[in-house]
Amino acid sequence: MSVTKFDLQKVHERFNESLSGEDDVYVDQYLEAFKELYKFFQLMGTVFGFVSSDVKEKVEILEKLRAKENAESFLTIRTMMEYERDSNLLNKKDYVSGSRTLLRLHRGLDFIQEFLKRIGELEADGKTNGVCQAAYNDTLAQFHPWIIRKGANVAMYALPTRDQLLEKVCLDVSVAIDLLPEMLAVTRKVYDRTQDLYTKYDLHGLP
């Protein structure tokens, strides 16, 4: 089954829409942005196999929580954290925590935004494998066991030049390059807000 191309504009719009008030993030729009990012991982093929299946699973878990009778409790990242904390659900054995699930997406977002930022700094014919390895090792790798880190770094050797990569995954390379700084600025704002919420509620260490 062919995957439709990755739309950077859509990621930008959905993450922008997810910003709630001064310090919160709407879950639905956050997940919509991530579903678009999932296309990016899929289009990259086996290189990002170590993260794409995990993203799909985590998005589906959170969508199910948003479809339950108490969906309002999961409207924003803040309401979700407060609800799970106040209901003593964060360490409940038979409960799949939304806060824990989103933490995995949050860590993945750190990697993808760092990778795209470094891609944007390359020349058209610049090799992307080194910047991908550096972005991964600086972010997501710290949460992965050695065997996954090793496999991921080996797979990244096969990555092409900047423009070859963008042509493979994006609807329009020139539009993607122009929009990238704006999209990354919004993504960073979403990431920072989410990071602050995990710090405020002391949830970075969820198992």
UniProtKB/TrEMBL annotation:
GO terms for molecular function: ceramide 1-phosphate binding; ceramide 1-phosphate transfer activity. One of its GO terms (biological process) is negative regulation of interleukin-1 beta production. Residues 26-170 form the Glycolipid transfer protein domain. GO terms for cellular component: cytosol; membrane. Coiled coil: none annotated. Belongs to the GLTP family. This is Glycolipid transfer protein domain-containing protein. It comes from Anopheles darlingi (Mosquito).
